[in-house]
Specification:
7-stranded mixed beta sheet, alpha/beta, 16 helices, single chain, 20 strands, about 525 residues, Aldehyde Dehydrogenase, Chain A, domain 2, Aldehyde Dehydrogenase, Chain A, domain 1, 6-stranded mixed beta sheet
């Protein structure tokens, strides 16, 4: 008997719905339908496809409150975070790409330095049928952004939401129907990791995966068997550097939100704090004071921190915390679960040996911040870079010039100065990392280009300029002389270049006259 996919409310354990998983043997048919609808969709003009995004935007605004409530029930985050960190960014991205996609994906001319008699340009065409495999921590914004970029670029999409948040995924499918998109342009399949593996085996034209490093490696390896390209966003262990001149109230508020929004279940969460030793004590005291004021779900109607969405995630918390206690780390606050065991209390851990521990080096993906100190700017940069991850970093300082100099030394896909995390939700700015944080970018111009192929096309500038090229057979002494003089046109001296130009033009005439190339 096929095991059901069960959607639960992580705050209460209530079963929201039981769903039948998509049969693996139905996937070939899913791809057949996607390919059939993708061809006429691609034939639409870019402007027409962009108008669909505006229709989708209207549908999303109409459904915003219902969707926010669903995200909160199935993922556990506060409805405010569902609105501010999931729905609002999607509205902004719909607006951005409706405006920008027709400009970005139209033919782009290439200026030519020497072959002035010809014209070159870049021509973009969609990848085809793409697979979007998304996580549970931002179950709406992360897949929605990739899907909207995929379809405006002319692709069809097979979408597998996390098995922990299938209802949010199905709501995205419903929205596309309400917005009038062609049937089967987006198809949502429901299942666990085995269905995701089966999806990869179907050889989609490109795979977009957001999730763990371990799963990302498996997907990349399986995709490589058929040379299927992948875009991987795999998380981070993101540092915040706090310089001695930082405003402590501002910096601690940034650390509080950066570390604990979505209960720390974000690849952009501040998980490492690097604080200058001269301000470490007052910084810790002020941050602890603010941490004690955070409200968890279940403590009243309004709350700041939801529960751990996945039970399995608690095992990682427990392992990191247990090791830290055994190795003598200092727990400034937290480090244990709430009475109902659904929430890990907001945790701040520090101590002399913290940098050698898992809680400082491995992605905890929960409401945990590990804090260490530094003496010099160069030490702070070195400590920040000492990680297998390279997704997001932030710097707190009144000296923005110094912070910008540091930012250019940090090995991260995004560095924010006096801000944290939020640019992951901007349509205009790229998101993605280096090292184990993944491959490729999403959002922004560069992200949209992940969903297309590019071809270079060249043609004569005018019909009368069609003549045999100077380097074609048969080779002759005239050609060699002409090309040798051509090399002289790259001399540094302007006088030498003018002399070479006169010789070049005279020999060009002789070449054309004797070889009858015109």
């Amino acid at each position: 008997m096929t095991q059901k996919i069960i959607s639960r409310n992580p705050a209460t354990g209530e079963i929201l719905r039981e769903l039948d998983p998509t049969p693996q043997d139905s996937l070939p048919g899913v791809f057949t339908k996607a390919k059939a609808v993708q061809a006429p969709w691609t034939a639409l003009s870019l402007k027409k496809r962009a108008t669909y995004l505006l229709q989708l935007r209207e549908a999303l605004v109409n459904q915003a409150d219902e969707i926010a409530a669903l995200i909160s029930r199935e993922n556990g985050k506060p409805e405010f975070e569902a609105l501010s960190a999931e729905i609002l960014p999607c509205l902004d991205m719909l607006t951005h790409f409706a405006e920008r996609a027709p400009q970005l994906l139209r033919d782009q001319p290439i200026p030519l330095r020497t072959a002035k008699h010809r014209k070159s340009y870049l021509n973009y065409w969609p990848v085809g049928v793409v697979a979007v495999i998304s996580p549970w921590n931002f179950p709406f914004m992360l897949p929605f952004a990739e899907i909207l970029m995929a379809v405006v670029a002319g692709n069809a999409v097979i979408f597998k939401p996390s098995e922990a948040t299938p209802l949010v995924g199905l709501k995205i499918q419903e929205l596309f129907g309400l917005a009038g998109f062609p049937q089967d342009l987006l198809q949502t399949i429901v299942g666990d990791g085995t269905l995701g593996a089966a999806l990869v085996r179907q050889k989609p034209d490109k795979i977009f995966f957001t999730g763990s490093v371990a799963t990302g490696k498996r997907i990349a390896a399986a995709a490589a068997e058929n040379l299927v390209p992948v875009n991987l966003e795999l998380g981070g262990k993101d540092p915040m550097i706090v310089l001695p001149d930082a405003d402590l109230d501002y910096a601690t508020s940034a650390a509080l939100w950066g570390g604990f929004m979505n209960s720390g279940q974000a690849c952009a969460s501040v998980e490492r704090l690097l604080v200058h030793e001269s301000i470490a004590k007052p910084f810790i005291d002020k941050l602890k004071e603010k941490m004690t004021q955070l409200r968890v779900s279940g403590s009243g109607e309004a709350f700041d921190l939801g529960p751990a969405t996945l039970e399995s995630q608690k095992e990682i918390y427990a392992r990191h915390i247990s090791e830290a206690r055994q190795k003598g780390a200092t727990f400034e606050l937290g480090g244990d679960f709430s009475a109902d065991q659904r929430h890990l209390k907001p945790t701040l851990v520090t101590g002399p040996g913290i940098e050698e521990l898992s809680i400082y080096n491995e992605e905890t993906f929960g409401p945990v911040i590990a804090l260490t100190t530094f003496k010099t700017v160069s030490e702070a940069v070195a400590k920040a870079n000492r990680s297998i991850y390279g997704l997001h970093a932030s710097i707190m300082s009144r000296d923005t010039q110094l912070a910008e100099t540091m930012a250019k030394q940090l090995e991260f896909g995004t560095v924010l100065i006096n801000e944290v995390a939020y640019t992951a939700g901007l349509g205009e700015t790229p998101w993605g990392g280096v090292k184990h944080s993944g491959i490729g970018r999403s959002h922004a111009d560069i992200g949209l280009y992940e969903f297309v192929h590019v071809r270079h096309i060249q043609k004569p500038r005018a019909s009368f300029l069609v003549f045999k090229s100077w380097w074609w057979f048969p080779y002759s002494p005239y050609q060699k002389t002409l090309f040798r003089i051509w090399l002289e046109l790259y001399r540094k001296s302007g006088i030498a270049r003018l002399r070479a130009l006169s010789h070049f033009l005279w020999n060009l005439v002789q070449f054309l006259k004797n070889e009858k190339r015109i």
